[in-house]
Structures are given as structure tokens and as C-alpha cells.
Design a protein that fits this description.
Blueprint (H helix, E strand, L loop, with lengths): L4 H20 L3 H13 L5 H15 L4 H13 L2 H10 L1
């Protein structure tokens, strides 16, 4: 079953919040990957996209360029279903 547009926006906001928690917990690679996913997703509203962009900027200051590139590509290649599975199985 497909999610409504509003449900997808709520999901993107939630993933951004989880990325922030992961960042605070020191899981910078995964936090960057999830923030990149949110920033690249067409369902993301502007305020959430802006929060994800700020997080990406903060994380980029603490990660090597190769890690940023790899995590960014992984994030952009993700699908919401797969992100939800990973986060609920973690």
C-alpha cells in the first residue's frame, strides 16, 4: 500500500530526527547517510530539507571527504521502505 503525501512528509521528518539522534550518539556515517536520503527525497518538505541540510553541513565538518561521498551516495540510493526496515531492526 502506498503512503499518502502527508505520511511521507511525516516519515521524512522522523528520519531527520533519528539522524540527529544518531549524530549525537557518534554514528556519524549513518547519520550522514540518512540526512542525505531525506535531502534527496521528493517527499521532503522545505523545513525538513533545511534541517537535513544543516545536519549534513555539521556532519561534514567531522567526516573525511571519502566518507561523505560514500554515505551521500548510499543515502541518495535508498528507499523509504528500506530505511524503515533498517531502523526498526536496529
Amino acid at each position: 500500500m502506498a503512503m499518502s503525501g502527508r505520511a511521507q512528509q511525516v516519515a521524512m521528518t522522523s528520519v531527520t530526527g533519528l539522524a540527529m539522534v544518531l549524530s549525537a550518539a557518534g554514528q556519524l556515517d549513518l547519520a550522514y547517510e540518512l540526512a542525505a536520503f531525506v535531502g534527496d527525497n521528493v517527499s521532503t518538505d522545505k523545513p525538513t530539507r533545511d534541517r537535513a541540510a544543516r545536519l549534513l553541513d555539521d556532519l561534514a565538518a567531522n567526516l573525511p571527504a571519502a566518507t561523505i561521498a560514500a554515505a551521500g551516495e548510499r543515502g541518495k540510493a535508498r528507499r523509504l521502505r528500506d530505511v524503515a526496515r533498517q531502523l526498526t531492526n536496529a
